[in-house]
Fold this sequence. Notes:
Layout: E1 8-13, E2 16-21, E3 24-28, H1 32-43, E4 58-63, E5 87-92, E6 94-99, E7 104-109, H2 113-121, E8 132-133, E9 138-139, H3 143-158, E10 171-172, E11 175-176, H4 179-190, E12 194-200, E13 203-209, E14 215-217, E15 220-223, E16 226-231, H5 236-247, H6 250-268, E17 277-286, E18 290-300, H7 307-311
Antiparallel strand pairs: 1-2, 1-5, 2-3, 4-5, 6-7, 8-11, 9-10, 12-13, 14-15, 15-18, 16-18, 17-18
Amino acid sequence: IVVADPVCTLTTHGDETVVWQGENRTTTTDDPLRILQQALDRAHIQPTYNNDLPFQGGALGLFGYDLGRRFEILPKIAQQDIDLPDMAVGIYDWALIVDHQKQMVSLLSHCDVNARLVWLENQQIAPPQEFQLTSAWQSNMTREQYGEKFRQVQEYLHSGDCYQVNLAQRFQATYSGDEWQAFVKLNQANRAPFSAFLRLKQGAILSLSPERFILCDGGEIQTRPIKGTLPRLPYPQEDSKQAEKLANSPKDRAENLMIVDLMRNDIGRVAVPGFLKVPELFVVEPFPAIHHFVSTITARLPEQEHLSHVMR
Length: 312
């Protein structure tokens, strides 16, 4: 899915959302997801079912973790040392859909498709600048600091203060060249089914995710959390044993079940009572480089409710 030239953009930092539509700029402190829904309603984009066209116009963009602070009371102790928006979304009335299996490109537009084709043909293609790192990767904590944080997490878990902690490190390095070239190489090596490249004013987001967070189709909700991973092995017999090892791992089964329970609880808050199900539990799915442990949770969204209600 390739898009550009949005009819409207919405960018949220903290309590403030800036909306650009053409040359008109507005600023609001209203609920950003409600603002997004209103902008979509104004765009009057009415997609029709077509299995070959998974995107037929609408909203594409970034929803950051900190956007949740607009809807949940969370402690504000994290350092604000990166200038990234909590939400950055564009609304698009056209798209290029590339089907790699059929080797076919489709151009769809809710306006003048011929004018959009001329616009595309007139775009100047700059010579690509090769991407390269100009320094080594550097973590934001030492091994000793990470170990101490890990021990603290263990104490929180044993005392029942939390169920799960994503103890992450941030690695940074300087670079030169075009971020798109880096994304292409990473995507070729990884082939993650939910990869995405977003270019923002602050830089670029390169996402190489194998995991679907939320699908809402015709009122049906689906989430497929992944917990449990082992690398693929080069020989089929060894690789099969690796998948079996993951399937029988008590640690990975417990971790997967924990996230399934959390997702059931969250989705159950907005779903129609009696329609929350787990049709797949503890399924090993092979990807090009790794085996993943995946479960599937489904539910039904109440009539007249929008996907933003699920996200909220």
